[in-house]
Amino acid sequence: MDLIVPTYLSYLLISVLLTVWVARTLHKNGRVFLLDVFRDEALADSVNHLLVVGFYLVNLGYVALHMRHYGVVDTTRIGLETLTGKVGGVLIILGLMHFFNLFVFSRIRRRARLPEAGATPAGSTSPVYP
Predict the structure, then answer these.
(1) Can you tell me the mean pLDDT for 39-65?
(2) How many CB atoms lie within 10 A of CB 54?
């Protein structure tokens, strides 16, 4: 009996649920961070929404591209090995995307906290150059 269709369906279900869960977590917790960076609620919410859309596109695109399996899945063992390999790839991509988002957020935050170019800090006679 070919178990590829149940393996594909399980892969899709698990991958989509993981992607939605991570995206919702990032959206909820990223909002606070973006509010601190932009100090404008409308702008922070817009950027947060755009980041979540991009997150969905990249991750679900990865899931779709890696749907195909070239071997025969005729035993439960091979089905589980195929499934775990595919879900493991999705988890790695989700983790990489999460760390990439953290990197981008930290860069945005660092730039937002730098003094304006040419500004002079209190008590100093020379301008600050980032």
Answers:
(1) 91
(2) 12
